[in-house]
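User: For my dataset I need records formatted as: sequence, then structure tokens, nothing else. Please produce one.
Assistant:
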Amino acid sequence: MKISRRELLKITGFGIVALTALPRMAFAARNSVRGLRTGIQPGNKTRLVIETANRPSFNVSYPNNQLVITLTNTALNSNLSASLTSGALVRSVSQAQVGDSLQIIANLTQSISEIPKNQIMILEPNGDNDYRLVLDFVAGAAPATYTTNSATTTTAITAARKYVVVIDAGHGGKDPGCIGKGGTREKDIVLSVAKKLKTKLDANGFKTHLTRADDRYLKLAERASIAEKKKADLFISLHANANPSRKMKGFSIYTLSEKASDEEAKKLAEAENAADKIGVEGFTEFEENIRIALSSLQQHAVAEMSEEYATGCARAFKKSSIEQQPGPDVRHAPFAVLRSTVPGALLELGHLSNAAEEKLLKTSSHQDKLVAAIVKSVKNYNFEV
């Protein structure tokens, strides 16, 4: 049975520390810490920056009056001293080697709550800086301290950390989406897959919501808004494709970008975004509000998390022997439905314009195969980052 990273807990002298599974690249060069520093951001936020030679893989935990960041496949740097800013919540920083992982222990002047994901980000190397893991936080009530001595405590941890996934069945109602030569409607295929996916994810311990559970029309802003209101950790929008070439087939996966990765991605985004033209009202106001809410750092964090999920999803599809449309594993385009603060991806499950794939997409067995691959991608996704 697969165990999520948050379930891999170990009691240490510093409290409960979440350990990751094996490093993403088992034979990758060992990482090293190049810098540790704190600062103060607007809103009286404390910023902790951990600079590393390679891109870090990490988990975060919150013992009493401490913030512990566990970096996998990383060695202790005994020559490094932290640069601390006066007035920040961090009073001291230490390092501890635990097997192949390195713990960065920030001792705090006050306890903090769990840091929201959009306040944790990885910045790419820039000028004189290497990779930077950045965490912004404020003082607040600390989460309860748990021990492994009680079965009820373990249950409490699991219940408190159930991840929320919003599943969006594209189109619906007066918008049928693509229609295959055999009359198969996209809105029906994706709703069937969405319902099956919800059942499977619920059974695997996730908390899921459907943007639509029946044949109704929703504007793109409403779909994105549901993910926001449900405080989703992940948003998955399901679609089926069409192509002028009847020979084209296979799945494709997309994330949000202001600029399309290729001409085909651009045309697909235009086609999907045109769904709003069926209704009367636009969603300019919602989009503007979302843009205001998204700081540049939040945009960077959401984009990185979306890319990570999409890449893992493509990998899961291919490992399940689901045929991929020729081209890159992940493409990018300005899909309106993905405009939110929630990481997500748009999955084109196949081509209804291809007669053979149209028949395949209608079968319960193939839909089950698609669902199993998506479930695997969600279970493998690192929700901690």
